Amino acid sequence: MERDVDDCMQTEQSLPPAQFDGQASSLSCTLSLDHVGEVAVTFNSDGLSWKLVEPLDNVATEIKFSDVYAVELIDYGLIHGSNISNARKCLSGHDSEIYRFTVHGFQRSKTLPSLRVLVAYTFGHKDLQTCQMWVNQINASLALEQGRPKNLLVFVHPRSGKGNGCKTWDSVASIFSRAKVKTKVIVTQRAGHAFDVMASIGIKELISYDGVIAVGGDGFFNEILNGFLLSRHKAPYPPTPSGFLQSATCDDNFCVRDPNATDIGTSSQNNEQQSPLLPSTSYDSFGVPNINQDSEFSLPNEHFRFGIIPAGSTDAIVMCTTGTRDPITSTFHIVLGKRVCLDVAQVVRWKIKSTSKVEPFVRYAASFAGYGFYGDVITESEKYRWMGPKRYDYAGTRVFLKHKSYQAEIAYLEVKSEEAKSIPERGNLGGRKRPFWSPKKSEKVVCRVNCKVCNTTTPCSHPGETKWSRSKGSFLSIGAAVIACRNDRAPDGLVVDAHLSDGLMHLILIKDCSHALYLWHLTQLARKGGNPFDFKFVEHHKTTAFTFTSSGNESVWNLDGELFQAHQLSAQVFRGLVSLFASGPEV
Description:
It is built from 11 helices and 22 strands. The chain is an alpha+beta fold. It folds into 3 domains: about 25-80 and about 95-145, Pleckstrin-homology domain (PH domain)/Phosphotyrosine-binding domain (PTB) (PH-domain like); about 150-235 and about 300-335, Probable inorganic polyphosphate/atp-NAD kinase, domain 1 (Rossmann fold), CATH 3.40.50.10330; about 340-415 and about 445-460 and about 465-575, Tumour Suppressor Smad4, CATH 2.60.200.40. A hairpin with a 2-residue loop joins β3 and β4. Mean pLDDT is about 80; it is low at about 1-25, about 80-95, about 245-295, about 420-440 and about 460-465. GO terms for molecular function: kinase activity. InterPro entries: ATP-NAD_kinase_N, CERK_C, Diacylglycerol_kinase_cat_dom, Lipid_Phosphate_FormReg, NAD/diacylglycerol_kinase_sf.
């Protein structure tokens, strides 16, 4: 069967489809579009576009190639003409059986900028060779796309959130299959299952994957991340709380200087306290330790990425990295090979109780570490797991009514930046004031797609300007946010201007106050555009490292939604330690 050259032509005929370079070659043809009518279609480096032979309003006219993930031939079948009276029918003028192919992709939601929806466009032509040429050309171009994954390890938490982990995976599994992405799926059978698999996986198998996907919540991702990092991330421990080691000890992983040795920082509060002791290591200009990595699998690693398909209770990491809690949108970021770097905090517990021996125990957190109110809520919520995500609201109310405070001491490494310059205080307004460290709302830079803050290599501080400060007293809560931690209960997150990859943690200290004032603070967190730091009992500090010592015998922390007992601990942040299949929120 011969084709009419005027009906379907490929420019730059010297380039066969397999050598389509996305610049010099294009394909154009008159095809029928299902439920629309006859269209003139063009495919080039910008994507697939078409225009109706008789233009109509409210009809999609293009899909960017960067949003296409698959194309498939549908052999001989029925394609439907438009129901609009003034549109032409298909090539024969009526509903007819012709050869068809379908282009699958994603499109941005018309109402929510970060949300993606699935789209599929079925085109038809009376000539099989014409359809096959289009399929081959698009597939050849898809094969040239850089960064798209080919092989993934997927962990599914069947009881995550409302127990919809398996259902969530089933809703998106066909997208991976259609995009020709191989997936090895492991449905976890017990707590710690994913951790054990990630910790024991051999380097040969690990490098065969383009990444690891977690179908679950923040806690499940934390389990996978820790299984991956604990055996592969080689870095010195963070600073230790001052005074709890009476003599220098050192082995392959644990090295602390003598308390009488010269400190590298100076205290900032009337020079009352000695700075925390530091490991024997060198630090970069961010105040972050230099890392010695295993040559077999270096970190950060541009090729290997993590992905999260949300099925949890809060899904704060997904909210901050994609802008929405939507499995389809997360799948869009994964199959199209998006990439964003993510800071990770290393938390080292030195003692479980005040009477315990010093035994360093390492965990990692990608979003948040919290003590006091946050630790009590996660502890209380464990009693009501049968309630599902609602248990957090119930547990939070019970903990709030108890209004319990804790004696503790925090030391943190100050970070000086342009926005941290002193801002004159406003007068005391019912317990409220503008802290000198808090920039005005108009000055805050929110993390988003192509974030300038995350992409800059300029240090946030200079080595000569770093110093240790200390805060001791009674606290309702202590929080360290690695990212903004946006969620349904806090639309701006705990810290509206926290970034995904700036090498900083946001230390939030809530000192003891009245019930009414604390409730006022919490309502500001729950309100979009609120000012939760605009109170005199709230301290907000940007830092690269901090230490904590409880004055009580025991204390419980919340690490990415998981319980973590620690009487004494230290934390430091590693800038862009891991990469995610994401691009940041479109806000």
